[in-house]
Amino acid sequence: MSVLLNCEGEACPNPVLRCKALLDSQPVPSLQVIVDNDAARENVSRFLLSRGMRIEKTVHENSLWSIFAVSQDGAPALQPEPSARPGCDLATGGRTLVFLTTDAIGQGDATLGQRLMENFLRTLPELGDSLWRIVMVNGAVRLAASGHPALPLLQALEAAGVSILVCGTCLEFFGLMDKKSVGQVTNMLDVVTSQQMADKVITI
C-alpha cells in the first residue's frame, strides 16, 4: 500500500523528520512525499536513498515536487546500522568534524577574515585521516558557491575523501542553491547527527 506524506509549506528539516518517523514506525513498501522547495526535495530524496528506498521518479508541477519512492525488492526500509556509516578511520583517533558558521574568521576586517578562512581550509589536510566531515551553515555556505576563492580548496578536500555537507535552508536564504559547487545539500537532522557521531568538533 502506498503512503502519501504531504509536507507542503514545511521547511527543512521537518520533511526529513516526518519521513524518518514514518519509516521508523511501520514498513513502507511505497511512498509519495510532497514538498514545496528544492532543499527539501534534495534532502528527502537523499534520506530515502539512505534508508534503502529507490526513487522511481520526481515530478515538479505548480511549485510542488512529488517524490515517488519504493523499498528495494519489496522489503521495508530499514535504519542503517551506525557502524555502516562511511568516512571514518578509527585507527587514526576518531572522526573530526569541522563546523563552519561563517565565511570569514574573526571580527575586524572582512577581507582579512576571508583570507584567514582560506588559510584555515588550506591547512585542514594537516589533520590527516581524522578529518572526517565539514558542515557549513549560515554564511559559511557562500564558501561552497561557484566563484568563491575558497571553492577550489573545498573541492580538493572533497576529492581527498572528506565529506562536505551544505545547509539547504541557508543556500535558499542566500539565493545560492543553483550556485553550490561542492558537497551535498543537507538539513538540520544531518547536522545534529554529524555532531553526535563525531569524536571531536572544531567550530568556526
Automatic annotation (TrEMBL):
Superkingdom in the source lineage: Bacteria
InterPro entries given in the database record: DsrEFH-like, Se_metab_YedF, Sulphur_relay_DsrE/F-like, TusA-like, TusA-like_sf
Sequence ranges assigned to domain UPF0033 in this UniProt record: 5-67
Pfam families listed in its UniProt record: DsrE, TusA
Family matches, as NCBIfam families: selenium_YedF (TIGR03527)
Name the record gives this protein: SirA family protein
Source organism per UniProt: Desulfomicrobium orale DSM 12838
Biological classification of the source: Bacteria, Pseudomonadati, Thermodesulfobacteriota, Desulfovibrionia, Desulfovibrionales
